[in-house]
Amino acid sequence: MTGKLFYLLGEGLQSLWRARIPALGSMLTIALTLIIFGSAYLVLSNFDRATRRLQSQYRIDVFYNPLLNNQEAFEIYKRLKDIEGVASTEFISKERAATIFKQEFGEDVVDVLGTNPLPAGAVVLVARGYRTARRINRIADEILSYANTTDVSYRGELVRILERYLQFALYGGLIIGLATLLGAFFLVSNTIKLSIYAKRDSVDTLALLGASRQFIRIPFLVEGSIQGLLGAMLALTAILGILDVINYILEQFVLYRIIRPPYLTSGMLLFGLALGLVGSYRSIRKFIRPGELGAI
Fold it and tell me: How far is CA 75 from CA 64, 80, 97, 119, 147, in A?
């Protein structure tokens, strides 16, 4: 059994070496395909992490009419808790607004102007399940619909821009990825076909000796699997190398690192193996009898 296994593996490696130029093309195409899909997964994972960091600070600053006193503004403020998606609220009195102004700008607004023109306001924290651009916009619009609410400030525009560009990147990456995926299938299949035709005499001999169809097919599946795994290793090396370079540059300017998402290595290796197997199986699926190479 062990000898048979080594024979099949050896035949697969020999076939790969004989067709090394076509095999190199298929491996590079597999690598390119996996780089595209692996990069998309990397971007998605880190975008989700960055978005969650923004969302953890998601708040809406509310400003009321400066002509209202604290009591009048507080009556409007009490209605905020009834809005769907609001997790908590905090009332900012005119005096508290003046204190915040002094902390931010180092000047006492009453000393400068002789009065306090700052409006009362509120801070609204959005519930976890509502921290998306669309839902935060709806909450902000409802707050603005209250009388004497003059303005709201929030980070919804930033998230909306990020979501828009992420969609463009995903759609573009998906189209390019699918195109290279088809190319990878074609090149792996073509390489296996070349190997089959190059070994047709050996295949016929094995058939005459009573070898089963599966026994004859396995070396070609091994060859396709090796192409897929080597292509996945090339892609993984490229992605991790680029990731190290980007993180090195980021560390020089900002305190942020792009993380390596879980299952990246195992996922790419399995994806590469699957590409190689499916591409090779595509070539031998019409293999009825070893002597009928023209049916492939």
Answer: 11, 10, 17, 14, 11
